[in-house]
Specification:
It comes from Shewanella ulleungensis. By secondary structure, the protein is of the alpha+beta class. The chain is 30% helix and 26% strand.
Length: 149
């Protein structure tokens, strides 16, 4: 929760129960980065339909899908620039590949759009449902998708 609060300055951090629901939906796909027994970064990843995103600050439940949603990848400010993000993303992509996942979607916020494009994610067509979900995110949020298979 502390890392989330440090990283997201353009939006109200999600509640503990919301964050826990993301983890409970798929604990095996979520990951933390630790150093000296301290969590410095995390990635919350769970199955979700391609072309859709959960509304911000809403609890979710387990869903069956062959696509994943990278709900959140956050790195403590003091660990930024150490390659932690790349390590987390590599772990998620390796895990998705091993499980034959079709792809991964995400919503880029706070100017992270260009970072995700550099990682191979591409803009995806929006639907009325996705447009409604994106309305819960800060202005400028965009849905991107990385096709894996």
């Amino acid at each position: 929760m502390a890392i989330q609060a440090q990283c997201y300055v353009e939006l109200t951090p999600e509640s503990l129960s919301v964050m826990q629901s993301k983890w409970l939906a798929s604990p095996s796909t979520c990951v933390v980065f630790e150093q000296a027994q301290e969590v410095l970064a995390y990635a919350l990843v769970h199955p979700w339909n391609r072309g859709d995103a959960p509304s911000l600050d809403s609890e979710i439940s387990s869903q069956h899908s062959n696509s994943w949603y990278l709900h959140d990848m956050a790195i403590a400010p003091r660990a930024q620039g150490l390659g932690v993000g790349k390590q987390l993303l590599t772990h998620v992509l390796d895990q998705a590949s091993a499980l034959n996942i079709d792809g991964i979607g995400l919503v880029a916020v706070q100017g992270a759009h260009s970072y995700w494009l550099q990682q191979g994610f591409k803009p995806h067509a929006t639907s009325p449902k996705l447009t409604q979900s994106l309305g819960t995110y800060p202005v400028g949020a965009s849905y991107l998708y990385l096709t894996l298979s």
